[in-house]
Amino acid sequence: MKLKLVIHQGGERTGAFEALALGGAAWVLAGCSPAGVDIFHGWQRLTAVLGKAGLYLFAFSMLIFGVQHFMYAPYIATLIPAWMPAHLFLAYFTGVAFIAAAIAIASGIQARLGAVLLGLMFFFGQYCCMRRGYLLISIIKMS
Question: What pTM does this model have?
Fold first, then answer.
């Protein structure tokens, strides 16, 4: 059974919750989008409900990612590029950031700030540091 794998294996859990987070984010966008052509009378009500459900699905996924950063911190530390210092600290720090963003988004307390900081963490963590770090270092050296 696939659910058993999702519960007990970190890689399967990550894949499942990545899809859940993307689906939740799409529902949030649907809930925030303008009404447009009102073909179905209940459309606005449905997208409002989906938007709220998507918010919680997204926040729950971020919570799971944060917990996994603590469960698998030594492994996650190996994924951080060699040129960055304090690999284990960064793995734990990222876990704390995921959990803080999840709590902010789900509770509505500083939700916008939590979402913005989470987005910045994704952008800078993935694209600037992890994948394009050599470009960032080159730009800094040229300055």
Answer: 0.78
